[in-house]
Design brief:
The chain is built from 5 helices and 75 strands. The chain is mostly beta strands. The radius of gyration is 29 Å and the shape is globular. The N terminus is likely disordered.
Length: 998
């Protein structure tokens, strides 16, 4: 009874406290000939609403379903396909109600990741009866739910309002959720959430990693009355700004045993009985948390840890402010080695401060909107609307664009107060034709859209497409001031979402073949990288930029901010698919960038600089993510390059890829020759006062024996002290002769070497990535190509350990791990393939067994995969050296040998930690234990039991796990081996050694 009374009390509080936030942002019906309008009816509308969504998807493949004001009762799941948005309108927001005791919402679903039934599930396919709905993925875009309230009635304890595992340009905005005794508001959060109220539920949000592995940004949102925690998160990149959490045990809870890259600013926490933030006691570089200006009232403990970590951050005052807190790997300058730190500054308050200012501008009242179609514009992707747009801007301040593709042929210049509004940037676009005369040829930049200096302009819900072969085009030149606003804008030009382009004769069949409408279909297209910048902020431009996606490969740079000290704020921006530069800041200051995500693709991103800062100061980056796709074949030298800049701060830096070819240096200053190498860290301050280093520093007696390699890896030594390493893409294997002290090319064969080993008789074993030879096509088959692959081995994706790593996704298949060996004194004449055996050699005969040194297990099965007993083994000619056949051999940059009865160290690359295992008499691993909370690729031991771990430099530990020292290396190391008195190692470009004997 007491629990019921409390629940009723919290529900009442939620209704009272959130009523003022439930203002409708679209008070009138937006007129749009291509939209679907859905009206309330008596009874259950589940089937009717689903049919309306399906009909729109089938007709246009994208678009908007508008809900008129009123109540809508449903009793089942509504599936929302890609590029479909549900938007409410009216003086009061429409309300969708899950009826009392709806079927299926009261039972557990143990086979479902969220153990729930969902009111609205955003999916990656259609919702036809013949098709099973599929989870949204990193390729699911342009979904939304806006200006609609939701209520869960009693009797639905497993109800979750939204499942939102989508990617760019998708959001939940202007929504109030009365969850009551339901389970949660959102499972699997994605992209952006703004102006949302979560009342009740076990959780407001419980989520794992987003589908693309990027951040979730939550703005101006209230969580209240959750029974367990306001937010429970795991690797979701939570970016919280102006978020209030109250009347719950915990505010932000990191999933037990896991980590997150989380950031809070200008937040308010009230009446949280257990902790404001509950952290796992995990100290790896992947565990990053920063907080700025967080006000707490009746929150006895702001930060608390699990897993035996007794640290707490608390204040006895009833009201206090967390001015700053940082947890994770910290660099006080670019000269620092970095250390894992918990730093904070709390101060008591006598009263609650004034709430932080909301910097997100509101759209003008709809009574002020002028419909561009009423002025004569035609969105058929054919008619030239230039003069209509220019006249509309001259005569009207607020211009509304219904869905359509609006062709223009000249620059569209805004006035200082121009507001241009669309409701969906994929179905509402302003577009050039290729070869538009005003934008073609050789000459100064010509903007498609231009805003004036100091203006209060707004551009929202519109796609901008400068097309290919408009070499002078700048998609948008932004000079508007601090009060200006760009929201939900897509800069297209590479992977435009398929769908009818709204001109006569265009059919759905034609649409299905246009996922990537290219100018030329070849490796690097002729139109790429020939335009100026996509978004150019210049001449004191600033303002707020929110939910922006820039993937226009035609532009030379995605975002270019220069010559401005006007404050600017970015919330959730994705910039990707450029050839040379994604983001540049030049002579810029006073900008705050939240949840900026950069992605590098294979075809266009091999030489790109993700971000470049030149002559900048007073810049802050919060939850900065850099990602390289799985098919990348060589590393980049740096993620961020700095020139003559100072007072630059990073709060959480996440540099990652499923592929082992990551980025050599996270941050690099070429003038001072200094770098921050670790891929993950919580805090970095670039003071600008760092000293210049020598051109080729050889610290700690490190010898650089040879350099100039593309990606040196796979290092191993034999019994004679000879050292071997390889280059995969270039298919070369090198040998350092211990007697002559000279390096030579040993092998240059057709197969890609992945890693190396040696047997007890000093043969070199080469693990390769083998693409099976195609079989001849049957004589009665038509067309070119082959009829299958010439291979008798089970495919690698059938190996048990392929499932726990996303490295095995996204087309990363079609090859096999194979091994050959050579006599190094006569290699080409002694090539011999190793047989694959179902059994180990007889008990007691195994003398050496090799395992992958590091594993990328981002689905968190590292321990179980390491101790799994493989069923197949490559056996060397000596009969006592074996390599178990496992999927991780296809990714590891080196192998590590052990003898039965010893111990082995393995790098959990995703978690950035090293585990120690016991090795039994047969050579199998068991009893994993944490050894060090650091690690990227390489690890090895010397004859005294000291352990060497590669992470930016080489960290040295004794056998007990006590840190001893750092060996500073000229470049970031990846593979290591100890032979005699020396530690030999490869860096990305060099082969080095350092003497380690006492």
């Amino acid at each position: 009874m007491k629990r019921l009374l409390l629940l009723m009390l919290w529900t009442a509080i939620c209704v009272a406290s959130s009523a003022v936030t439930s203002r409708s942002v679209f008070t009138q019906r937006p007129d749009d000939p291509d939209a679907v309008y859905f009206n309330p009816t008596k009874g259950d509308v589940t089937s009717a609403l689903q049919q309306a969504i399906n009909a729109l998807k089938k007709r246009d493949n994208y678009g908007i379903v508008y809900l008129a004001p009123g109540e809508y009762r449903i009793s089942g799941t509504i599936y929302v396909p890609p590029s479909i948005r549900l938007i409410g309108y009216g003086k009061e927001r429409p309300v969708v109600i899950l009826s009392k005791n709806s079927p299926g919402f009261d039972q557990s679903y143990p086979d479902d990741e969220g153990d729930a039934k969902y009111m609205f599930w955003f999916i990656s396919n259609t919702a036809d009866e013949e098709v099973e709905p599929a989870e949204a993925t990193s390729g699911t875009f342009f979904q939304g739910f806006e200006n609609i309230n939701v209520k869960v009635e009693n009797g639905n304890p497993q109800a979750v309002v939204f499942r939102t595992h989508y990617a760019q340009h998708s959001f939940i905005e202007h929504v109030e959720m009365q969850i009551g005794n339901g389970k949660a508001g959102i499972f699997e959060a994605g992209n952006e959430i703004e102006d949302v109220v979560f009342c009740g539920g076990d959780y407001g949000i419980y989520t794992r990693k987003t589908s693309p592995g990027w951040q979730v940004t939550i703005l101006n949102t209230l969580f209240e009355g959750q029974r367990k925690a306001c937010i429970r998160t795991m690797e979701a990149g939570m970016t919280l700004v102006r978020v209030t959490m109250r009347h719950s045990p915990i505010g932000l809870e990191i999933w037990p045993g896991y980590t997150d890259v989380a950031f809070m600013e200008d937040c308010t926490l009230e009446n949280l009985s257990e902790a404001g933030v509950m952290q796992s006691g995990v100290l790896t570089p992947t565990n990053q948390f920063n907080a700025l200006n967080v006000t707490c009232r009746r929150v006895p403990c702001f930060l608390k840890f699990r897993e035996g970590d007794q640290r707490k951050v608390e204040n006895k005052s009833a009201i206090y402010c967390v001015d700053s807190l940082s947890l994770g790997l910290t660099f006080d300058s670019m000269e620092s080695d970095g250390n894992h730190a918990l730093r904070y500054n709390l101060r008591p308050l006598t009263q609650m401060p004034t709430p932080p200012r909301n910097d997100i501008p509101t759209l003008p009242d709809m009574s002020q909107w002028t419909n561009i179609m009423d002025l004569g514009a035609v969105g058929d992707d054919k008619t030239d609307n230039t003069e209509v747009f220019l006249k509309a801007i001259e005569e009207h301040d607020v211009i509304y664009l219904p869905q359509g593709i609006y062709r223009v042929s000249k620059p569209i210049k805004f006035k200082p107060n121009t507001v241009m509004i669309g409701m969906d940037p994929v179905s509402t676009r302003i577009k050039l034709a290729a070869h538009s005369p005003a934008f073609s040829g050789f000459g100064e930049p010509v903007p498609l859209i231009e805003t004036p200096m100091g203006g209060r302009c707004i551009l929202s819900g519109i796609g901008l497409d400068a097309m290919g072969f408009n070499y002078r085009a700048v998609t948008c030149k932004w000079m508007a001031g601090e009060e200006s606003y760009m929201n939900d804008v897509h800069f297209s030009g590479w992977a435009t979402v398929k769908g009818p382009q709204r001109f006569p004769g265009f059919t759905q069949e034609m649409s299905n073949s246009m996922m990537r409408p290219r100018i030329m279909d070849r490796g690097v297209e002729e139109s790429w990288d020939n335009q100026h910048w996509n978004l150019w902020v210049t001449r004191q431009g600033g303002g707020v930029f929110k939910n922006i996606w820039i993937n226009n490969t035609y532009g030379s740079c995605g975002l270019f901010v220069e010559n401005t000290s006007t404050p600017g704020r970015i919330y959730e921006m994705s910039v990707e698919h450029h050839l040379r530069s994604e983001v540049r800041f030049s002579n810029a200051s006073k900008w705050r960038i939240y949840a900026l995500q950069l992605e590098e693709e294979t075809r266009e991103g091999n030489d790109v600089v993700p971000m470049e800062l030149t002559g900048c100061n007073d810049l802050r980056f919060f939850n900065f993510f850099v990602f390289r796709v799985i098919s990348i074949v060589r590393p980049l030298p740096y993620a961020v390059r700095i020139w003559n800049s100072s007072d630059i701060h990073f709060y959480n830096f996440h540099n990652f890829t499923q592929m082992r070819f990551t980025i050599n240096n996270s941050v690099y200053d070429p003038n001072k020759r200094i770098a921050v190498r670790p891929w993950e860290f919580a805090r970095l301050t670039i003071t600008g006062k760092e000293a210049q280093r020598p051109e080729r520093p050889c610290e700690d007696n490190v010898e650089c024996l040879q350099s100039g390699f593309e990606y040196a890896e796979g290092i191993v030594h034999d019994n004679n002290g000879n050292v071997f390493f390889s280059e995969e893409r270039l298919r070369k294997v090198y040998m350092w002769n211990a007697a002559t002290k000279k390096l030579s090319l040993l092998l240059d064969l057709p197969w890609q070497p992945l890693s190396l080993a040696t047997d007890t008789e000093n043969r070199l074993l080469v693990m390769v990535k083998y693409y099976p030879q195609p079989k001849p096509r049957p004589s009665n088959a038509s067309g070119s190509g082959a009829g299958g692959a010439w291979s008798t081995l089970p495919k690698p994706d059938q190996l048990p350990d392929h499932k726990g790593t996303t490295y095995s996704w996204w087309g990363n298949f079609g090859f096999e791990p194979m091994v050959y060996c050579v006599d190094t004194s006569n290699p080409n004449a002694t090539i011999q393939t190793l047989p694959l055996s179902k059994e180990l050699p007889v008990a007691g005969k195994v003398e050496k067994i090799y395992y992958a040194t590091h594993r990328w297990r981002d689905l968190h099965d590292f321990d179980s995969v390491c101790i799994y007993r493989p069923k197949e083994y490559f056996v060397a000619p000596d009969g006592c050296t074996v390599i178990p056949r496992q999927y991780d051999l296809l990714r590891s940059s080196s192998l590590q040998s052990v003898v039965p009865g010893s111990t082995i160290y393995q790098v959990d690359e995703f978690a950035h930690r090293v585990k120690r295992f016991k090795v039994d008499a047969q050579g199998f691993l068991s009893e994993p234990e944490l050894f060090a909370e650091r690690g990227e690729h390489g690890v090895t031991t010397d004859r005294n039991g000291n352990v060497y771990i590669a992470e930016g430099n080489i960290l040295v530990y004794n056998s007990k796990g006590d840190y001893q020292r750092t060996i500073h290396t000229p470049e970031g190391p990846n593979s290591l081996t100890c032979s005699g008195d020396y530690l030999y190692f490869t860096t990305r470009n060099s082969f080095c050694r350092v003497k380690i004997a006492n």
